[in-house]
Write a structure and sequence with these properties.
Layout (H helix, E strand, L loop, with lengths): L4 E3 L2 E7 L23 H12 L6 E2 L2 E2 L1 E5 L15 E6 L3 H5 L3 H19 L3
Antiparallel strand pairs: 1-2, 2-6, 3-4, 5-6
Length: about 120
Amino acid sequence: MTRPTTVDDWWTAILWASDGGDVVAFTDLAPSAGPPPDPPLTRLGPALAGSLSGLILEDEGRLQVRLGLVVPPSDATRPWRCPALVRVAFRWEPARAAVLRPNELAAEVLSGFKRSLEGLGRP
């Protein structure tokens, strides 16, 4: 994970999955039967938001979380064939975030990201 920064109340960072040195592709994290047709962020977004339940601010019924690929797939018909390198942005629930030190908040994000990536391999 890159060092998080805050821009206009949004906590932002870049997260990735590696196998000890190299960034892995989302295809390496897909179910053994093969990647599903929907893009990996379609599954990763809700999983990550769920893993950080209670920390993410809800504004007008919408969780304040944004995910985007850093490197999009070269072939849009094969959305899992790109690096597992994700741009994230969150707006935190102020009362919950106030009691966490910055490194604790980052640890929560990393832990949630890891669990969410592991969930991608489930059918």
